[in-house]
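Single-stranded-DNA-specific exonuclease RecJ: structure tokens wanted.
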Amino acid sequence: MVSAKYQWQEENLAPTPASQAIAEEFGLATIAAELLVKKGYTTIEEVRTFLEPSSTSFHDPYLLYDMQKTVDRIQEAIVSGEHITIYGDYDADGLTSTAIMYETLTQLGADVDYYIPDRFKDGYGPNKAAYERLIADGTELIVTVDNGVSGHEAITLANEKGVDVIVTDHHELPQTLPHAYAVIHPRHPKGKYPFGDLSGAGVAFKVATALLDEIPQDLLDLATIGTVADLVSLTGENRALVKFGLTALENTLRPGLLALYEVAGVDQQTITSETIGFLLGPRLNAIGRMQHAQRDVELLTTLDDELATDLAKEAQSLNIQRQNIVEEITQQALDKLEQEPKHLVNVVAGPDWHEGVLGIVASRLVEKTGRPTLVLNISDEGIAKGSGRSIEAFHLFNALDGHRELMTSFGGHHMACGLSLEASNLSQLQTILDEEAKAQDLDPTKKPVLQVTAKLKASEVTLDLIASLDKLAPFGTDNEVPVFEITDYQVVQAKALGKTNDHLRLDLNTGMTQLAALAFGVGDELPELLAQPKSLKFVAAVDKNEWRGNISPQLLIKDLDQVAKKKPQVIIERSERLQKEQFLSPAVYGFFNANLAKRFAAHLPAGSKCVVFDQNLPQLTVDEVVLVDLPQNLAQLEFVLGKLDCAKVRAILYTKAKSAPLPERTDFTKVYKYVFQVGHLNLKTDLDQAATQVGLEKSQLVLVLKVFFEAGFVTIKNGILVGVKNARPHRLEDTNSYRTHGQQIQVEELVLTSSDEALTDWLLQRLG
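Answer:
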């Protein structure tokens, strides 16, 4: 039985005068307007600012502390010909920050280059040895991007050598800032910048704005990638930046980005924040994870189409390698965890594990186990180095911060950390983390909360609703994609998708139309989901699918739960005659034949209900349902069974007469020749003799003649049937009469000839 990974917590949206006014003013669906009010946008002006950001949404860059000082120093360096080095970082935010600053200073005529630290040799942030090499090579001014606020030692070294360092960063501020020439940070303790959640690329973009004395439209594409990839808040100034930046990405002429789109399979005209998060960001990060990321900046800034293509292909290749290595290490780590006693916090280590992907592996293990996880590589020198990822209920940084004596290096925050220590201390680390988990009252059985916007009927998922919700995009941190608990549907079909069959597609009957729901990466759970798809309930985001010019709504499942249902009692009462005794108890009596329902409606016992099983049948939640007569086909019966939620099903499945066997191919040929031999048939007087002549039952002959008529092989006028010479070829199986008769025989074979046990099993498998 598959269980939900999250505790679903509904937002409890409610209509208010404010939401009604907002819906009317902006042409929004009621749910979208209520969601905006829930987020705190309660006036028309606040909503307009949110939905329609403008250039006024960007704050004056000089509101950032030390900005004037920074601009003056960089301009002085440019005028005097000083060599400037931009010191970046190896993730997508750091790479785009570097590219923004490099292009800006190049445009201003600076003597500038950039340095991306090596993840494996230099580590994160300012590195003393790296600074020393840069200064020895002639660097006279260092400008950091997306790092620096914790670089005390390296910056002190630079000061001692007479080289100024300008820090531009957005990471957590230490208690004491380094003694840099200037520190640009949106949350600078002496500053009053109105928005504190800029990414590293966002801060670099503000410096570029100040240096160029205008908002640099041509850098919006890079700033947007860095902002989205770094998972900073997509509210306020970041929302405006990304809103404009997505348009810039749809129109960018950068050879590197165009080449990256090509290898990632990105449609340039439909780029969203999800495109960045799932397609572009991982490929930019792959180079830094697998080798030196210096070439990433070259990819982003080159004007050479051929070089851009080569670099994009390299990024794609490394990303595939990264994915394979992640899968391999994840499986090895899971195997190790299964062989060891369970702990409140997972600590797992192994030799020859690629250090560039251990954070991703830790995230995978958190997802699979629901527990905070540290994954470490053990080097030949006996040093364990790796990354940790946590859950909301466990503050990972606080758990380790008081035990620094155990580690040779450590840094992080609530949800993540990086660390190294002697491998011989790993068991002690495990003990400490288990004790800290108890101190924080960590309950690994408690599911994380998933905010569910509202309950939504499947029939309410329309393109109009999706268009309304799309106006709330771009989605990301603090402006999450709305997620709904979907209700009032019937699972018509469930099947596996993907090259490795690890995705699930559900086809839902909404009562009005069919709707697809997709769940990606369900993997090991797939067999159970496919075995009992009708027991599923789920939460999903609404989305649209575009295929060959057709656009239709679909659902993207975020979490699902299998609800164990008690199987109803099935009683088989097959009958070729309807008898009074079968209609004595109060129940819902269901008929496939509407005329038969009319005949019996007035004779049912008190407290009963007569229902015609048609395509508008609602969900039936009752004690007992009686299936009175036979359906026309099995699909009709399956549809009805999927709508039943009851304690008992009585299957009378009455039929007046069993259908004649379907004629053989030779029978059709014999009748066809006979028609031309006799010249014509009077349908009122000649059928008995004709049936005898061709060796068929009369009902079989009638079926053959109906098929011929539909296929255009004969004509009928005033009751006289005549063969058509030189008739156009037509597959007999495609005629409605042939198909319907075959379907009826299928029903009869199941319902009338199978054993009670076999019929009971078949019905139970399909009951809703």
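Residues 569-658+752-766 form one domain. The chain has a mean pLDDT of 93.

Cheers.
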